[in-house]
Amino acid sequence: MTTYSGMNALHLCIHHRSLLEKIRVLLQHGVNVNGKTYSGKMPLLQAVKVGDTELISLLLHNNASIMATIHDDNTALMEVLRQGNTTCEKHRMIIRLILEKMNSTDRYFLDFQNNQGWTALHFAARRGAKIVIHEVLDWKPDITRRTDDHGRTALHVFIDNYDDMLNVLQCLVEHENGYRRTDAINQQDYDGCTALHLALENDSDNSYIVCCVNISPQGIKSFRTFPHICCRRLHIFGGINK
């Protein structure tokens, strides 16, 4: 049975921050761990909002769906990355718990795009926390996925938000086995901008520019947008434009 808003006993217990033991009893007696309220809330998403790692672990152990979505079609993983303080160990633990629940071959979950085209990696890139980006990249997501509005990859999103965090940029473009590294560095958004274009346009630290060029030297020869910006700063490369 549910309330008029569609909440079952598990929803209510999480909402009222009930003791974990009470929730465990409900799960043992078959309460629907993936029940949806009329507004679309599912227990795992409630637990993510509360930020209780023990509760999240218990729900996942009892087969809570990691594909549960909330507003904007965000998964629980996206919500942690969107809302949480990713420098906090508790939030990193939640991210780890969700990722470990995923089957290593389940690319659909990791590359799932919300209704704006964002993946979990896009949210991680916007947060700019190297350790979190590394956690996601370890599962080999498709780093060339593009958003619906501007056609931007996670690399575009990162460069557009941070201009002096070279170690994080390197994490995005030089991660294990170089998976789709060159593809990502040369990927253009809907305005024709690559990561290098954005770095130039945003007047990012010179180390960003050098990193992008070192990964893909041919990229410097394919400028088709922002020629005035490119010309202004190509002296960094000591004649590479000749």
What this model shows, in words?
- With 242 residues, the protein is mainly alpha-helical.
- It has a domain at 143-242: Serine Threonine Protein Phosphatase 5, Tetratricopeptide repeat (Alpha Horseshoe), CATH 1.25.40.
- The protein has 15 helices and no strands.
Level-1 CATH class name of the domain at 143-242: Mainly Alpha
Helix content: 40-55%
CATH topology of the domain at 143-242: Serine Threonine Protein Phosphatase 5, Tetratricopeptide repeat
Low-confidence stretches: 176-180, 225-229
Put simply, the count of helices is 15
The H/E string reads HHHHHHHHHHHHHHH
Broad structural category: mainly alpha
Strand residues, percent: under 5%
Summed over residues and divided by their number, the pLDDT gives a mean of 82
Shape: elongated
Q: What keywords describe this structure?
A:
single chain; Serine Threonine Protein Phosphatase 5, Tetratricopeptide repeat; mainly alpha
Care to give the gist of this entry?
With 242 residues, this protein is mainly alpha-helical. Helix content is 50%, strand content 0%. The protein has a domain at 143-242: Serine Threonine Protein Phosphatase 5, Tetratricopeptide repeat.
